[in-house]
């Protein structure tokens, strides 16, 4: 068994980070190094899926639940408009291999991909 991911350690309270919202199977936190005025992470409570491709193939309902929580936190913490980013693979900048979505919001209209 490999070590729990940083997000599992946050979920269990081993690493301090406020859980700002959750559903039965998904939770949301603030990113520790924000790249936008609002930068939240939405994360399945299970770490069995390493990226969004595995999640979509393995549990589409869980992916739907994740997108729903992303929409809810974007409405609560910004004006409801948001960018949803899944870095997939180290070459794309993924550093934590426990699938998570970046919810980026606030003054993002300039530029197409940020
Ligand atoms: P990735 O690069 O894998 O797409 O995203 C991982 C994200 O997790 C990064 O944006 C990074 O800032 C964030 N992160 C890493 N460690 C922690 C932590 O201990 N607490 C919080 N809140 N975010 C973290």
From TrEMBL:
Q: What positions does the record give for the motif labelled Histidine triad motif? A: 98-102
Q: Where is the active site?
A: 100 (tele-amp-histidine intermediate)
The record's Gene3D superfamilies line, in alphabetical order, gives: HIT-like (3.30.428.10)
What InterPro entries does UniProt report for this protein, alphabetically?
Histidine_triad_HIT, HIT-like, HIT-like_sf
List the protein's name. HIT domain-containing protein
MF GO annotations: catalytic activity
**PROSITE patterns xref list:** HIT_2
Q: Which SUPFAM superfamilies match?
A: HIT-like (SSF54197)
Where would I find the HIT domain in this sequence? 6-113
């Amino acid at each position: 068994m490999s070590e729990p991911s940083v997000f599992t350690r946050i979920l269990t309270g081993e690493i301090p980070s406020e859980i700002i919202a959750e559903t039965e199977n998904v939770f949301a936190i603030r990113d520790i190094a924000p790249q936008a005025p609002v930068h939240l992470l939405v994360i399945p409570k299970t770490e069995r899926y390493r990226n969004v491709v595995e999640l979509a193939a393995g549990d589409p309902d869980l992916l739907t639940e994740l997108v729903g929580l992303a929409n809810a936190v974007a409405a609560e913490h910004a004006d409801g408009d948001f960018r949803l980013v899944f870095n997939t693979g180290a070459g794309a900048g993924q550093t934590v291999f426990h699938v998570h979505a970046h919810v980026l919001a606030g003054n993002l209209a300039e530029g197409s991909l940020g």
